[in-house]
TrEMBL record:
It comes from Paraburkholderia bryophila. Belongs to the membrane fusion protein (MFP) (TC 8.A.1) family. The keyword DNA repair does not apply. It is found in: Cell membrane. GO terms for molecular function: efflux transmembrane transporter activity. NCBIfam families: RND_mfp (TIGR01730). The keyword Membrane applies. Keywords: Cell inner membrane, Cell membrane, Membrane, Transport. This is Multidrug efflux system membrane fusion protein.
């Protein structure tokens, strides 16, 4: 009986310890609540800013060489040698081919001999004429003899002139046997091989030389832009940019050279030519390029990311974040595009106002929003990813906190179960001696 009385104080102490443990778990360290997420749809927004926006007229153009020369022989003969490599850069006056000139050189020597002979005959006739003029004074010869000698001198002078022309002609013919480049440029593929007999009637030629510097680009623009182009030309040189077919790589800078004098009635366009003096090897003859002609510049106009502009049945619109984090739908008139930004022409957006760049598909006029990422202009794509990542991180944090609370609850329940089991065990142990 005495042993049983000692068991009850021990059981009371154990129960007290369990109560203290439960109090420490639930009242001293309550489960942390997840922070409240602000209401509204998460979006990314960018503030509109003022900037100078160039106005371009885009068109597809063709690179045209300054000059294209087909080198054709001016004398008949055997092509002796070709003194160029295909694709080689040649200079004006550089020898590119030679024709066998031996026959023409022989004719030249013969003509020079005839000229020397006729010059001697002319000199003798001039001396006889001087003697006859002295003899006529003393009556030794008749006037007819003097007149005949005068005519002979004139005839010999004509013969000498004719011989001189023949010599010069043969000299030119011999010089034609050495074919030189008429321009600075690039020679194309060889059109005839050495050893062939070439004639002046052939239209194929020996080679084709293309002058690449400065390069020109010809493109057509709608006739509606003629006013803008003429106003731009009146202000000075008009800048033209040449891009590749994908409009990604800038090939060269140039200026507007000329505008055609008439409009093509079939297409309603006018041809324009631009010159690129420092194009190097980036512009090749007959290459297709995208020409961008700067017709004007809009000064200090509001610009927003192109991703912020939405398209609807009533035209283009944007969502502007206003007071109370509510968006307002505004119709806008989009202007020229510069990079990732677009100019707003009608004043629908003011500088400093925030426009939604990501998440607009879930909004309507007056919708409540929560700006989770404010990105600089031109980085709207990155802002969308940032917004999604931020929202995902917030959800993950909330889930983790909720999981922590559940873990704490489970720990408290486990402690309570352990206490109950201990109590039951103690009661059972205390009851056993009593039964004994």
């Amino acid at each position: 009986m005495k042993r049983t009385n000692l068991k009850w104080p021990a059981l009371a102490v154990l129960v007290l310890l369990v109560v203290v443990a439960v109090w420490l778990l639930y009242f001293r360290h309550p489960a942390r609540k997840a922070p409240a997420v602000p209401p509204g749809t998460p979006v990314s927004a960018v503030a509109a800013k003022l900037a100078d926006v160039p106005v371009y007229i885009d068109s597809l153009g063709t690179v045209t060489p300054t000059r294209t020369v087909t080198v054709i022989t001016q004398v008949n003969g055997i092509l002796d040698s070709v003194d160029f490599k295909e694709g080689q850069r040649v200079h004006r006056g550089q020898v590119i081919a030679r024709i066998d000139s031996r026959a023409l050189e022989a004719q030249l020597v013969q003509a020079q001999g005839t000229l020397t002979h006729d010059k001697a005959a002319l000199a003798n006739a001039q001396l006889d004429l001087q003697r006859y003029r002295q003899l006529i004074k003393v009556g030794s010869i008749t006037q007819q003899t003097l007149d005949t000698q005068t005519a002979t001198v004139n005839e010999d002078q004509g013969t000498v002139v004719s011989d001189t022309g023949n010599v010069k002609n043969l000299q030119v013919q011999v010089s034609y046997c050495t074919i030189t480049s008429p321009v600075d440029g690039v020679v194309g593929l060889r059109l005839v091989d050495p050893g062939n007999y070439i004639t002046t009637t052939s239209t194929t030629g020996v080679a084709v030389i293309t002058q690449l510097q400065p390069a020109t680009v010809v493109y057509a623009v709608p006739e509606d832009y003629l006013g803008q182009i003429h106003r731009a030309m009146s202000r000075g040189a008009v800048a033209v940019l040449a891009y590749d077919r994908d409009k990604k790589t800038l090939l060269s800078h140039g200026t507007l050279l000329a505008v055609d004098n008439q409009v093509d009635t079939a297409t309603g366009t006018v041809k324009v030519k631009a010159e690129f003096p420092q194009s190097g090897d980036t512009l090749f003859p007959n290459q297709f390029v995208n020409a961008r002609m700067q017709a004007d510049t809009l000064r200090q106009i509001p610009v927003i990311p192109t991703a912020a502009i939405q398209h609807g049945t009533n035209g283009d619109f944007v969502f502007v974040v206003g007071a109370g984090n509510k968006v307002a739908l505004r119709n806008v008139k989009a202007g020229p595009v510069s990079g990732d930004n677009t100019a707003i022409l009608d004043g629908g957006v003011k500088a400093g106002e925030q426009v939604v760049t990501d998440g607009a598909d879930k909004l309507d006029n007056g919708s409540a929003v929560r700006v989770v990422a404010a990105t600089p202009a031109g980085a709207s794509g990155a802002s969308g990813a940032s917004a999604s990542a931020t929202a995902g991180a917030s959800g993950a944090a909330a889930d983790a906190q909720a999981a922590g609370a559940s873990t704490a609850g489970a720990s408290g329940a486990a402690a309570s179960s352990a206490a109950s089991a201990a109590s039951a065990s103690s009661t059972s142990s205390a009851a056993s001696p009593a039964s004994n």
